[in-house]
Amino acid sequence: MSEVQDTIKFAKVVGSGNDFIIIDNRGDRLKKSIPNFSRFAKTICERKNSIGSDGLLVLEDSKTADLKMRIFNPDGSEVTMCGNGARCSALYAFKNEWCSENITMETGAGIIKAQVSSKDVRLAMTNPKDIKLDKDLGLGNTIFKTHFIDTGVPHVVHFLNDDTDIKDYPVKETGKKVRYHKTFEPEGTNANFVKLNGKSSIHLRTYERGVEDETLACGTGAVASAIVSHLVYGTEQPVEVITISGDALKVYFKANGNKVNDVYLEGPAKIVYEGIISI
């Protein structure tokens, strides 16, 4: 006789090309079914053999906000912040009537706020930190001009030359070298490759640590790239960030020199489907 399997309800939610699996752990209801979220993420996020996604979002009770969001990468690592994941979580909580359209969320990077509208989700980010501009990074025989910023998680930003087509750039190959560079040990970093697109617009491709591949969009990477574009090249905000998915995110902020605050990330999000998975 076969063993009876537990079943878990989930939702597949997408924010500007970033796709996530959301599960409800309020009241610690999944304690028995999923004793280890890291191990569960490695299984459920795997494409082809499971649901597949850029990450697992576990929504829980919070004593300081409407809800708590935990973020697990496909490799099982837990990270402190995910911009598009937070926007997707806010949409899911609102659609399920857990809270109003104005939502507060507890994350590893601090308390963040989101506002859900009919078309977009606008997220108030924590203030960026550790901004380091114009740093040379050796990648084999190549010296890269890079910029570092932490927008809840660490990001390196590299601007492509005018004659480089961003669509043809080897993001996975180069991004992996940056991600594992000794400069960023032991945690590593995300790597963003940016092409300027006028006075208030940029094209962006991102290699995400934990996913260990390029993703169709990255919220914290969009914020990082927009802010660095302004600091280095004077890109006017709100900065339109065109992702490889084709969707555009908007980044708003206030900057006084390298001091940046009042950061907002805005863009589309949608619940694609809901279902049940046997574990």
Structural domain tally: 2
Task: Spell the H/E element sequence.
Answer: EEHEEEHEEEEEEHEEEHEEEE
- According to CATH, the homologous superfamily of the largest domain is Diaminopimelate Epimerase, Chain A, domain 1
How many strand segments? 18
Distance between the termini: 17 Å
Molecular structure report:
With 279 residues, the chain is of the alpha+beta class. The protein has two domains: 7-126 and 269-278, Diaminopimelate Epimerase, Chain A, domain 1 (Roll), CATH 3.10.310; 129-264, Diaminopimelate Epimerase, Chain A, domain 1 (Roll), CATH 3.10.310.10. The chain contains four helices and 18 strands. The protein has helices spanning 37-44, 83-95, 171-179, 219-233, and strands spanning 7-15, 18-24, 56-60, 67-72, 78-79, 102-107, 110-116, 120-124, 129-139, 142-150, 154-159, 190-196, 201-208, 213-215, 239-242, 248-256, 259-268, 270-278. It has an 18-stranded mixed β-sheet that branches. The longest helix is centred in the last third of the chain and has 15 residues, at 219-233. The protein is globular, with a radius of gyration of 19 Å. The chain starts with 6 loop residues before the first strand and ends with a strand. The model has no long low-confidence stretch (mean pLDDT 95).
